[in-house]
Amino acid sequence: MTHANDFVALNIAILTVSDTRSLDTDTSGQALVDALTHAGHTLGAREIVKDDIYQIRAAVSGWIAQPDIQAVLITGGTGFAGRDSTPEAVTPLLDKTIEGFGELFRSVSYEEIGTSTMQSRALGGLANYTAIFCLPGSTNACKTGWRLIEPQLDARHKPCNFVALLQQKSRD
């Protein structure tokens, strides 16, 4: 039994959406890996896929179905460039959206990059008791996003967080 004051390490998957990055050049994905492991979580999986709706959807769907992956962090493909398609790939998979995540991300990001933040289509949601957060591809945007996500993936954060909900996945 987990008590409210206990930290719960989650298994988190990282997906980088890019037509050009490799594991060696993926600074955004690596920043997320470093952040989640520093926070005490476990890297459950990591993948890089092309900015293609069906490749993105296939990777995320696989993780949603795995009982040992409680969260998915996606970097890249959230802008307005021609091939940016992460929101279109992920949205149909969601059972519920976390409207406040995109709103809060853009609000905080405004302080960093001004009105350019309105081009961010960062989003969050839940699918099969899996938290999914879609972030822009820049390393700084991933660091900003993690500052917002981290407390919600910590069982000790009050008044609420997603951990108890995410733990239901492994029980079902």
From TrEMBL:
Keywords: Molybdenum cofactor biosynthesis. GO terms for biological process: Mo-molybdopterin cofactor biosynthetic process. InterPro entries: MoaB, MoaB/Mog-like_dom_sf, MoaB/Mog_dom, MoaB_proteobac, MoCF_biosynth_CS. SMART domains: MoCF_biosynth. CDD domains: MogA_MoaB (cd00886). SUPFAM superfamilies: Molybdenum cofactor biosynthesis proteins (SSF53218). PROSITE patterns: MOCF_BIOSYNTHESIS_1. This is Molybdenum cofactor biosynthesis protein B. GO terms for cellular component: cytosol. Pathway: Cofactor biosynthesis; molybdopterin biosynthesis. May be involved in the biosynthesis of molybdopterin. Transmembrane segments: none annotated. Belongs to the MoaB/Mog family. Pfam families: MoCF_biosynth. Residues 13-156 form the MoaB/Mog domain. The keyword DNA-binding does not apply.
